[in-house]
Amino acid sequence: EERGPIPRLSKLAEMTLKQNRFHNLENWLWLRTQADPRKVFKFLLLGEAGVKLENNPKFIQWIKYVKLYQADQGVHRFTASDIFYTLLASKRTEEEVAVLFASLKKIPGLKKLAEDLQKAQFDSWRIKGKIPNAGRIYGKTMPSMLLE
After folding, report:
1. Where's the RxLR effector PexRD54 WY domain (predicted)?
2. What confidence tens digit (pLDDT) does each residue in 96-119 have?
3. Nearest 5°: phi and psi at 67?
4. Which tens digits make up the pLDDT trace of 35-83?
5. Residue 18: pLDDT band by 50, 70, 90 thresholds?
6. Among residues 122, 105, 124, 103, which one has the least CA distance to residue 113?
7. Which of 9, 23, 42, 97 could cysteine-pair with 61, CB 3.0–4.6 Å?
8. How much is the pLDDT for 9?
9. Global pTM value
10. Looking at the 3D structure of the chain, how many domains does it have?
């Protein structure tokens, strides 16, 4: 009996690798042209109605592009607050955005950015004097969510 990789799994892994290479190339090209992250967000159709962002490869690609853009142009050129308000402008609720930011912490290389995004959202709530519903989603207080 021969044991080897499962053909379907190998094809899926290969497709994912090719997709990542394509996304990396796109991100590099956008960076070379200094494309504004808001325009890239629109180009990827991430603001369209019904588009889920959690576990969406295009959203992850956009977040990775934002990281590259910040590294190239400086964090001040497109801040965590800019990301937060870009998502709110795409008709996402603050609770949806909070869940999204928490999910980004689980993706390798995005934990620090996800924490910065959560802090930006928490600061926004604090300034507005809002009690965040997102904390209830997790059954935790917001400061403890930020420390995870």
Report:
1. 27-66
2. 888 888 888 888 888 899 999 999
3. -60, -45
4. 999 999 999 999 888 888 888 889 999 999 999 999 998 888 899 999 9
5. low
6. 105
7. 23
8. 40
9. 0.73
10. 1
Three-state helix/strand/coil letters over the chain: CCCCCCHHHHHHHHHHHHHHHHHHHHHHHHHHCCCCHHHHHHHCCCCCCCCCCCCCHHHHHHHHHHHHHHHHHCHHHCCHHHHHHHHHHCCCCHHHHHHHHHHHCCCCCCHHHHHHHHHHHHHHHHHHCCCCCHHHHHCCCHHHHHHC
How far is it, in rounded angstroms, from Cα 119 to Cα 147?
10
For residue 142, report the phi and psi dihedrals to the nearest 5 degrees: -60, -45
Tell me whether residue 62 is in a domain.
yes
Would residue 1 count as lying in a domain? no
Q: Is residue 109 part of a domain?
A: yes
* Rounded Cα–Cα distance for residues 109 and 112 (Å): 8
Domain that holds residue 130: 7-147
- Which region, left, alpha or beta, applies to residue 108 given φ > 0 means left and ψ of -120 to 50 means alpha? beta
Residue 31, in any domain of the structure:
yes
Distance between CA atoms of residues 95 and 36, nearest Å: 26
